[in-house]
Design goal:
Layout: E1 2-6, H1 12-22, E2 28-32, H2 39-50, E3 64-68, E4 74-79, H3 87-91, H4 94-98, E5 103-107, E6 121-127, E7 133-137
Parallel strand pairs: 2-5, 2-6, 4-5
Antiparallel strand pairs: 1-7, 3-4, 6-7
Helix pairs in contact: 1-2
Length: 138
């Protein structure tokens, strides 16, 4: 397991860069943590470090947002908070995304745990008592 500490928002890009260097070659990430811990904010920072050329927003209602980098790479950002049953994920063809060899950042993966790919990187985000964040990777 690898741990990163995020002490303030000013450190986001530095921590995102370290995260991406540590996980080099990995493409599918499952972000666990309670609402408000900063999953979307951290994913925005990761997308910025990867060179996304558009505004990164939460796909809460769309389930998935697609972003493109300046180099033409595609990044998928999922938010499964609002799904009620796994069939909703089957219906939009999750396999095409998860096995595309593109970056996939997944929020609320506990709702789809049974279909996460074997190569998924588990990311646990924790808010500490002092307001800092701990990001654990396994």
């Amino acid at each position: 397991m690898q741990t990163f500490q995020l002490k303030s928002l000013t450190e986001l890009s530095v921590v995102a860069d370290k995260f991406l260097r540590f996980t080099k070659g990995k493409k599918v990430f499952a972000f666990f943590g309670p609402m408000g811990v900063g999953k979307t904010t951290f994913i925005k920072a990761l997308c910025n470090e990867l060179g996304v050329i558009e505004i990164v927003t939460s796909p809460t209602f769309a389930l998935v947002n697609e972003y493109q980098t300046a180099k033409g790479l595609i990044i998928y950002h999922f938010d499964f908070y609002r799904i009620n049953k796994i069939e909703e994920v089957y219906d939009f063809g999750y396999e095409d995304y998860f096995y595309s060899n593109n970056y996939c950042f997944i929020e609320w993966p506990d709702k789809i745990a049974e279909i996460l790919p074997e190569n998924v990187v588990f990311v646990q985000m924790v808010e500490n008592e002092d307001g800092t964040r701990t990001i654990n990777i396994r």
